[in-house]
DNA sequence: AATGAGTACAACCGCAAACAT
DNA sequence: AATGTTTGCGGTTGTACTCAT
């Protein structure tokens, strides 16, 4: 039997949070620390929210150090690069953008970056019809964008058992390395052709990303480049390892 | 001024991994 | 080892707001 959804739990509120609820949650975290979300409604008197809702509110809104407001061009660039590497792994991407939450980045991608890239693709590839300026066309374009977006990374991300990568040691990056392990299985399904996006000036996103890395314009943002390169290296090593593991797994039944 | 479409983003849901018993 | 619970993630929805007609 499945667990009842958060919203249908007896006596618990849902919908937008009030200032009072925020204050209660902040007070709870200050006293008990993060975690134990399932006990919040019991320990924080007057806060009638399920643990899941509390965690989300804290992580995405109340947690100290959360950066709000517009994304900088450097952040845009890093998100695009990391999304190319990681797909829709918003939490991983968020870990590399200080003060940004996975939810915020996900929303920003869906609202701005993803559309921007795909519009560039559309404008580059669709030379067939002159603009009619009608709303229908805009609507159609919106629909197309949605479809294209869905084609970019079709696989539903799944977590796999974490392991230490070859040559890696127990350090701060271990968690990141482990988190990267599912990537190979995802990338294996979508063909290169399916994943090609067009970016500024109409060149494909892979070329653009490489260009971005080595242009003068971006030399000032060494930190962002470093992050990108770091991920690229991690990705390559983790792919190799997972591939080895996967190959072994597929043959194992025949060996025993 | 009314209204419908588009946009932004907070919040919710379902699922699966991780953890506890 | 089996089972139940909690946590974290990505996808989706709801709604307030803006803008064009």
Automatic annotation (TrEMBL):
Keywords: DNA-binding, Nucleus, Repeat. Signal peptide: none annotated. SUPFAM superfamilies: Homeodomain-like (SSF46689). InterPro entries: Homeodomain-like_sf (IPR009057), Myb_dom (IPR017930), Myb_TF_plants (IPR015495), SANT/Myb (IPR001005). Residues 123-147 have a biased composition (Basic and acidic residues). CDD domains: SANT. Residues 9-62, 63-113 form the Myb-like domain. One of its GO terms (cellular component) is nucleus. It is found in: Nucleus. Residues 121-151 are annotated as: Disordered. It comes from the Eukaryota. The keyword Isomerase does not apply. Its main location: nucleus. GO terms for molecular function: DNA binding. Residues 9-62, 63-117 form the HTH myb-type domain. This is Uncharacterized protein.
């Amino acid at each position: 039997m499945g667990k009842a959804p958060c919203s249908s739990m007896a006596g618990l509120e849902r919908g937008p949070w009030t200032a009072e609820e925020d204050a209660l949650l902040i007070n709870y975290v200050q006293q008990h620390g993060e975690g134990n979300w399932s006990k919040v409604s019991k320990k924080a008197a007057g806060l009638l929210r399920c643990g899941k809702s509390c965690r989300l509110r804290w992580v995405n809104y109340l947690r100290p150090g959360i950066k709000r407001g517009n994304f900088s061009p450097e952040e845009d660039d890093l998100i695009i690069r990391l999304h190319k590497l990681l797909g829709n792994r918003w939490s991983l991407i968020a870990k590399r953008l200080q003060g940004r939450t996975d939810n915020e980045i996900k929303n920003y991608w869906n609202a701005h970056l993803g559309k921007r890239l795909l519009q560039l693709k559309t404008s580059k590839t669709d030379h067939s019809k002159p603009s009619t300026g009608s709303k229908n066309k805009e609507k159609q374009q919106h629909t197309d964008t949605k479809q294209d977006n869905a084609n970019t990374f079709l696989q539903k991300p799944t977590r796999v058992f974490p392991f230490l990568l070859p040559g890696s040691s127990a350090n701060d990056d271990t968690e990141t390395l482990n988190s990267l392990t599912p990537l190979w299985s995802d990338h294996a399904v979508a063909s290169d052709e399916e994943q090609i996006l067009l970016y500024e000036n109409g060149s494909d996103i892979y070329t653009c990303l490489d260009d971005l890395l080595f242009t003068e314009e971006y030399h000032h943002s060494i930190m962002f480049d470093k992050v990108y390169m770091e991920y690229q290296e991690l990705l390559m090593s983790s792919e190799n390892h997972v591939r080895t593991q996967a190959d072994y797994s597929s043959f194992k039944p025949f060996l025993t």
